[in-house]
Every structure is written in C-alpha cells, then in structure tokens.
TrEMBL record:
Gene Ontology biological-process annotations: intracellular manganese ion homeostasis
Organism: Candidatus Nanopelagicus hibericus
One GO location term (cellular component): endomembrane system
Name by which UniProt lists this protein: Putative Fe2+/Mn2+ uptake transporter
Keyword Membrane on entry: yes
Keyword Kinase in annotation: no
Classification via Pfam families: VIT1 (PF01988)
CDD domains per the UniProt record, alphabetical: Nodulin-21_like_1
Chief localization: membrane
Length: 234
C-alpha cells in the first residue's frame, strides 16, 4: 500500500473533527430544545401572542451566548496548551539530557528496546524535539488542537439552525401552535442525532435515542413550568 492510499484511509478517522463536532452537536441540540421549550412554556402559560417574538429572541440570545461560552472555554484550553509548550521549550533548553531520557523511557514502556528507543529519540530530536515531546509526552496533536474561533462559529451556527426548526413549526401553524412545534422539534432532534452519529461514526440507534430523549425531557420540564405559571396567573 502506497503513502497516498494510507493518507486516504486516514481520512476515515474522526479525531480531527473533535474540535468542532462537540460544539456543533451541543449547539444544535440546545437550539432545538431551548427554543421549543421557551415557545411551549409561553403557550402553556396562555401567552401565545408572544410565541414568535420569544422564539426569535431566544435564538438570537442563545446563539450569542453559546458562541461566547464556547470561545471562552476553548480559549482556556488553548491557553493551557500554549503554557505546556512554553514549559516544554524551557525544559528542552535547560536540561536536554533529561528530556531525552524521558522520551526514551516512554518508548521503552510502549514496547521498544532501549537501544531502538534511543535511535528513535535521536532521530526525532534531530528533526523537531519540541513536537516529539508535545506529542508523546503530553499528548498534544495538531489535529486535536483547541480552536476557539472554530468552536464558537460552529456553536452559534448550529444553535441558530436548531432554533429555526421549532420556529418554523410555530410560523406555519394556523391555530394551536404547540402540536406543530412539538412535531418539528421531534423531527429536528432525530435529524440532529442522525447527523451526529454519521459525523462521529457512532451507532445510529443509541445516538438518536440519546439526543431525542434528552430533548424530550428538557421540553417536558420547561412546558410543565410554563403550565404552572399559567395556573398561578403570573
């Protein structure tokens, strides 16, 4: 098998998607559940005139909140990675012999003989010692590196896409909006689970069930709170 074929086969791996997939799945699911829950809670509280306005406001506020939250959290992860890089750079400059021995020990524990491990580390130090230590000592890989802007964008876009689904149900309803909101939300949750499973390479039934059941619980609780608010006349 040639190098080109190996590179093509490596594209099947999902690790390079981890940086944005989590944000996208969380955003779409949150957009579906929070927007639907908000509109159904308002309907349950007998405030149906405000459903569309609440849905639009919820999508805008939620998308911005998700984007900012993702950026801040992933930026913190990136700060840790950068700090580790600085520490490793300093250690290599101050005590290269100990760092060499540390990497040899890592490879020996993975199954190489000591002589072979020393040959490997010598070759790696000659090419790029820092990258070798970041990868094999700390588990830092470029394809899994924290990317705050990418995560923020994926979160905001997916939240908006998810929130639009129940909103469409409310917009096209001619009378009672709740049944169509629930129908569109259920379809959106199933689609989100399906897309998530396909991108991540996970089992379809369990992924769809996890996303769908979580959404149902969230909508049910929020609708119940709206119903209680309607009973009290608040």
């Amino acid at each position: 098998m040639g190098l080109e074929e190996v590179q093509i086969r490596n594209l099947e791996h999902r690790a390079n998607r981890a940086g944005w997939l989590r944000a996208a799945v969380l955003g779409s699911n949150d957009g579906l559940v929070s927007t639907a829950s908000l509109m159904i809670a308002i309907a349950a509280a007998n405030k149906s005139d405000f459903i569309i306005t609440a849905g639009l406001a919820g999508i805008a506020a939620g998308a911005m909140s998700m984007a900012v939250g993702e950026y801040v959290s992933v930026k913190s992860q990136l700060d840790v990675e950068n700090a580790d890089r600085e520490i490793e750079t300093r250690q290599l400059a101050e005590d290269p012999e100990s760092e060499f021995a540390e990497l040899v020990d890592i490879y020996v524990k993975r199954g190489l003989t000591e002589n072979l491990a020393k040959q490997v580390v010598t070759a790696m130090h000659a090419k790029n010692a820092l990258d070798a230590h970041l990868r094999d000592e700390l588990g830092h890989y470029d394809h899994t590196r924290a990317r705050p802007v990418q995560a923020a964008a994926a979160s905001a876009i997916s939240f908006t896409a998810g929130g639009v689904v129940p909103l469409i149900g409310a917009l096209i309803a001619t009378a009672n909006q709740v049944p169509l909101i629930l129908t569109f939300t259920a379809a959106g949750l199933i689609a989100a689970g399906y897309i998530s499973a396909k991108i991540a390479g996970s089992a379809l039934p369990s992924t769809i069930f996890r996303v769908f059941s979580g959404g149902v619980i969230g909508v049910t609780i929020t609708a119940g709170i709206g119903w209680l608010v309607g009973l009290t006349g608040v």
